[in-house]
Amino acid sequence: MAFAGFDCGNYPGDDNIQAWAVDGTYKWCGYYLLAPCHGSSFTPWTGKYQFLRGLGLGLAILYVGRQQSGCGSDSLSRAQGQADGNDSIAKCKAEGFPQNAVIFVDVEHFDGGISDDMKNYYQGWIGALLDDATFKPGTYCADGNANDLINAAQQEYASHGLPSGNPAFWIVRNDLTFDPQTSVPTGSGVSLANIWQGRINVVGEAHGGVTISPIDQDVADTHDPSSTLQLASAILRRQLDLATTALHGLDQFQRMFSQVVAAASAAPPAGDPQKRLFFPNGIDLIDATVKMDLKDGFAIELKLQGPTKT
Q1: Of the residues 93, 192, 199, 241, which has the maximum number of CB atoms within 10 A of its CB?
Q2: How far is C-alpha 216 from the geometric centre of its chain's CA atoms?
């Protein structure tokens, strides 16, 4: 299963992106951090995470780093890559992104093979994220440059004691047959692809009576490529762990948790913002109310009553 997304360098505005979120054609969008090669000439996305999270939109976080040619090409080094990696981390912390969110460093197309300077910069950026361990590295790149970057990334992961590690990959390959509703990431021609950007600079696309233009069309293997919507589930996991593990053991807790999360992930019945669930798990009453709201996301309330028999 794949999930349609879009990205655009300029923030489209709250009303416009809300209209697209309500329409539902796209399940996620790119989120550009201020970066060395994506700066004040663009309408910033900064500070919009909580608003977009409230709309239920997944995100793919982008950091446009220094490039092999053009922007920043005169300052490529491992030390600069580490500095920019740390800048990525600081900006994501300031935005409030949850731990383990994926940051995609944007490596624009370059001709020929990767240069030594670019490789050092790229590995330094990945190394900074692996050292800090707050967020996970990802890579946005052209399909023709993917092998060089995959090899460089695997070397960096191996140097950190992770010989089978890889960043997530967002692959760019323009294809007129691409359809964000039916294509899949591996259709990009790169087997490790988690996202495929298949159409670039699409103009005039409208949803919910609103046009956002130009955009790039994408498809991902998840509705939330950077895992920015997982904070509520993580909090719920801790709360349920405390509430139920002591009574019924880990297996019982895991079964109950999976049911609650499945309910939270599902859309409510039409016209009904709530879903009420009951679980016969040996506790006299488990009352879980999932409140769904387009702006506020979902909240889960639990009421537990211990067993009457020991």
Answers
A1: 199
A2: 16
Task: Give the domain CATH number at 118.
Answer: 3.20.20.80
Question: Are 185 and 122 in the same domain?
Answer: yes
Shared domain for 126 and 164, answered yes or no, is yes
- 38 is a domain residue: yes
List pLDDT tens digits, range 261-310. 554 544 444 444 444 444 444 444 444 454 444 444 445 555 544 444 33
Are residues 152 and 43 located together in one domain of the fold?
Answer: yes
pLDDT digits (tens, 9 = 90+) for 143-173: 999 999 999 999 999 999 999 999 999 999 9
φ, ψ for residue 8, nearest 5 deg: -155, 140
Q: Within its chain, how far is the Cα of 212 from the centroid? A: 21
Edge-to-edge strand ranges of the sheet holding 297-305: 274-278, 285-293, 297-305
Find the radius of gyration of the CA atoms of the chain: 21
Looking at the fold, whether 245 and 144 belong to one and the same domain comes out as no
pLDDT at 48 over 90: yes
Q: Considering the entire predicted model, what is its pTM?
A: 0.77
Position 110, amino acid? F
Number of separate domains in the chain:
2
Residues 98 and 193 in one domain: yes
Q: Is 285 helix (H, G, I), strand (E, B) or coil?
A: strand
